[in-house]
């Protein structure tokens, strides 16, 4: 049997959807299990023992209809028996349509339902602490008679990667016997990034409470923005921030985070990766993102999160995520750090640093 799982685009989505492979491997130990992903997301699924082959979707397929069509025809030649389309967008619709698989599974959408043999309606609520993002992905396995309530994404780092990152930290002045906290200072876009002045106050609180050594999660092209947040911090806080120590690649970031006591900051891929590494997290959600979907594995003192809706629910009454998105930046002004100061303080004290 040959099974293809499709999850394009974002790193966090690719990591989260990788939970399907452990369940598929348990059900079909001898099957060929392939994962179709965007090439830039590969680092979060490297060394996953349940994935046989990665099928890479590149910018060329993304930007050209002709190239996408050729790509879909190549997929057809692989003769997959099952295609699970988690992405469920136009490009993956086309790839699935051309695949000629006997079993095609995706989420229900009226315009694409004819393509799939099984159309799964997303749950809108759950009592499971794993969150809707996990629950809805696991529902895609039900047509294969695989029923599990929860599954946690995992990242597989090698001993060499961990040792290299440990040496990198210690030779650059980090004392691993003292508190070390990674800050997700920037989101994937402006409307997913906590305002710089507010983030600086959060970092000030972290240092005042824990006296931790602070690492920033950013990539070289974001140095200007990261430095701007650094400059807004108090002088005593700046002395605890190691601006020059950051992951220059995604695997580097993962290896550095594995040595941290917690990751705190903007919701996004970094938070999901930290959870997959069993690192404690405190997440600040964007004002327009649906917290119920992405607060996966929420647990007091382990993985906590805050959202403006938690404190000012009247702003969200009867409104959808799509309706809130254009207001994101204006809503951020209302999401002041004092709203969750006590909750963050309790989380920091629970770390016993």
UniProtKB/TrEMBL annotation:
Write the record's keywords in alphabetical order, separated by commas. Answer: Glycosyltransferase, Transferase
Q: What Gene Ontology terms describe what this protein does at the molecular function level?
A: ADP-heptose-lipopolysaccharide heptosyltransferase activity
InterPro entries in the record: Glyco_trans_9 (IPR002201), LPS_LOS_Heptosyltrfase (IPR051199)
Quote the Gene3D superfamilies the UniProt record gives: Glycogen Phosphorylase B
Q: What processes in GO biological process is this protein linked to? A: lipopolysaccharide core region biosynthetic process
Q: Which Pfam families match?
A: Glyco_transf_9 (PF01075)
Tell me the domain of life.
Bacteria
Q: What is the protein name for this chain?
A: Lipopolysaccharide heptosyltransferase family protein
Q: Source species, please? A: Oceanihabitans sediminis
